[in-house]
């Protein structure tokens, strides 16, 4: 009798545990799987939300990475190796307004779209001409500076090259992928692509190219009497154009920068920075 009562008591306890929520091994596996799927879905949703917002992306990592080239007076290094210039100073101020640091990365200009889409940089801010190629591949800010492509030749030969027709026999150094290269192509000029506009100037100064085509803002800062290239001179203006900043397609940083430009124009800070680098005459009202 005692054995029967003990057996009945044991069976009652097992039944009670099951009824009160005890789970089997299969139940535990199901719960673990559901928990993993929920966590995964939450992480994916967070990742998707971040990837949809460039602002959230840069604020999360704490850095705005700016793609540039050596291009005085827009982006160039001071004696301590720090990047300065009109664009560099504006980019630094913009990053500060977003609560992040700025980092400058020197890129090959022809690779700017690939660098941007690959997220090795967050924007292209380097006196970038708003060409059809650029505006179709990036979302761009409002234009903030006027510019032109201009011919640079040895100063002692400048009087020989004052018209586009006079340029046909020259061989030009031009930055690869630049508006200067596009201008040379449009006019069917002979040219050699080089890494940067600074290199193009060095080629013209050394005589390894007859001339160079660079931005007029760079020419104003670096060519002529009292500059680094006092034996060179500017002659023919080939194009008229405007500068903008490029971001990834769909980037919410575009609206942030346009508002920053507008505020900086209203409070005069953009003019102060422009005057520091001698580009105030090129500013476009925001």
Which short descriptors sum up this protein?
11 helices, D-Maltodextrin-Binding Protein, domain 2, six-stranded mixed beta sheet, single chain, 286 residues, globular, five-stranded mixed beta sheet
List the helices and strands and how they pair.
Layout: H1 2-19, H2 25-51, H3 54-61, E1 63-68, E2 76-77, E3 83-84, H4 86-98, E4 101-106, H5 112-117, E5 123-129, H6 132-137, E6 139-140, E7 145-147, E8 149-154, E9 171-175, H7 179-186, E10 190-194, H8 197-206, E11 211-215, H9 216-222, E12 232-237, E13 241-247, H10 253-267, H11 269-276
Write up what this structure looks like.
The chain has helices spanning 2-19, 25-51, 54-61, 86-98, 112-117, 132-137, 179-186, 197-206, 216-222, 253-267, 269-276; strands at residues 63-68, 76-77, 83-84, 101-106, 123-129, 139-140, 145-147, 149-154, 171-175, 190-194, 211-215, 232-237, 241-247. With 286 residues, the chain is of the alpha/beta class. The chain has two domains: 54-146 and 242-282, Periplasmic binding protein-like II (D-Maltodextrin-Binding Protein, domain 2, 3-Layer(aba) Sandwich), CATH 3.40.190.10; 149-239, D-Maltodextrin-Binding Protein, domain 2 (3-Layer(aba) Sandwich), CATH 3.40.190. Strands 1, 4, 5, 6, 7 and 13 form a six-stranded mixed beta sheet that branches. A five-stranded mixed beta sheet has the order 10-9-11-8-12, with helices on both faces.
């Amino acid at each position: 009798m005692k054995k029967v009562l003990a057996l009945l008591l044991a069976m009652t306890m097992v039944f009670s545990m099951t009824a009160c929520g005890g789970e089997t091994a299969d139940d535990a596996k199901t719960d673990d799987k559901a928990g993993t799927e929920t966590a995964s879905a939450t992480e994916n949703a967070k990742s998707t939300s971040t990837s949809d917002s460039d602002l959230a992306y840069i604020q999360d990592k704490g850095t705005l990475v700016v793609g540039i080239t050596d291009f005085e007076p827009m982006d160039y290094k001071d004696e301590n190796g720090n990047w300065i210039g009109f664009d560099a100073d504006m980019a630094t101020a913009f990053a500060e307004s977003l609560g992040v640091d700025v980092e400058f990365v020197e890129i090959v200009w022809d690779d700017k779209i690939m660098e941007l889409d690959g997220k090795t940089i967050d924007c292209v801010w380097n006196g970038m001409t708003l060409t059809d190629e650029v505006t179709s591949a990036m979302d761009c800010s409002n234009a903030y500076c006027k510019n032109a492509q201009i011919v640079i030749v040895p100063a002692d030969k400048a009087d020989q090259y004052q018209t586009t027709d006079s340029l046909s026999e020259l061989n030009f150094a031009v930055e690869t992928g630049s508006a200067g290269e596009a201008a040379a192509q449009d006019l069917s000029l002979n040219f050699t692509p080089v890494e940067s506009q600074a290199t193009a100037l060095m080629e013209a100064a050394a005589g390894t190219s007859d001339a160079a085509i660079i931005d007029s803002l760079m020419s104003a800062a670096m060519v002529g009497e009292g500059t680094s290239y006092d034996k060179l001179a500017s002659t023919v203006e080939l194009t008229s154009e405007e500068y903008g900043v490029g971001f990834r397609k769909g980037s919410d940083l575009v609206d942030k920068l346009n508002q920053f430009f507008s505020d900086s124009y209203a409070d005069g800070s953009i003019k102060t920075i422009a005057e520091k680098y001698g580009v105030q005459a090129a500013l476009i009202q925001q």
